[in-house]
Amino acid sequence: MTGRVLLTGASGQLGQSFCQFWDSAEQDQAWQLVALGRDEFDLTDEQGMLTALETRQPDILLNAAAYTAVDGAETDSATAFQVNASAVDTMARWCQQHAARMIHVSTDFVFDGKATRPYQPEHATAPLGVYGTSKREGEKRLLEALPAATIVRTSWLYSEYGHNFVKTMLRLMREKDSLGIVDDQRGSPTSTHSLARLLHTLVTEECPAGIYHWNDGADISWYAFAQAIQRQGLACGLLHKAIPLHPLTTADYPTPATRPAYSVMDRSKALDLKGVEASNWEVELRRVIDALAMN
Ligand SMILES: NC(=O)c1ccc[n+]([C@@H]2O[C@H](COP(=O)([O-])OP(=O)(O)OC[C@H]3O[C@@H](n4cnc5c(N)ncnc54)[C@H](OP(=O)(O)O)[C@@H]3O)[C@@H](O)[C@H]2O)c1
Question: Is 131 known to be catalytic?
């Protein structure tokens, strides 16, 4: 397989990590990556998107762009649906008409969090908030327009780029004398680097279409994740003193959007793909913390 890959959302944390991995990976010179940020590929500008697609003629469209402000979506649902659903539909239709593949990134927030075992890709979706509902609508419209699309749902994404829980925790651990963190929501943190490796395999190998789940293999609460962040931050010198961390309940820390209480997803279908290796959440966290320490 060869061809041109068009990546959207190139300046997001996943987009940057994908470009970084692409540059480091040895691959057939016949593959070409065109990475576009919002200025060149705006998901609220349908005509602009179609013009860019006609100009670039991608063989694979990798959509890493999204409206990701989970709480902001509660009051700006029009933009959330425009970016996460209508734009996905536009891209999917173009791919269908031009025999291009599409790989799309989605979220654990399509689930209601009432499960007690890791979610399978075919588990019924029931989002709790506007963001999750807009992402589910994007999945639905993508599969209607392009049944051979590939969807990768992921959770609790973090990296050395952009805004995320790991960077927020490190900052608060430096600024505060103690910190309370929610302990009754469980999920699986995912480094954008391990996700980028999976996406690279999906792009360059012959992989069956369908819905995949990806994370770094943990089943922990935000509080346990924060404890690991502090431990590793101290070990690599990013933090200089340990502060007390306190478990909170969701009721102690109200947010505009309701989060799923449990959002661990079963990644075994992705692990069955040729060339895909299991990532380990503590190893992945260490890698990002080391990258932050070097900045
Ligand atoms: N973050 C998480 O915890 C998480 C969890 C599960 C799933 N996901 C999914 O993973 C994917 C990647 O997320 P991420 O964490 O990398 O998000 P991110 O850092 O917020 O990046 C999203 C990117 O989308 C771009 N974007 C937003 N609106 C746009 C528009 N109208 N036109 C073009 N680009 C636009 C942003 O552009 P600007 O840089 O210009 O703002 C940004 O570069 C998304 O599909 C997200 O839903 C994320």
Answer: yes
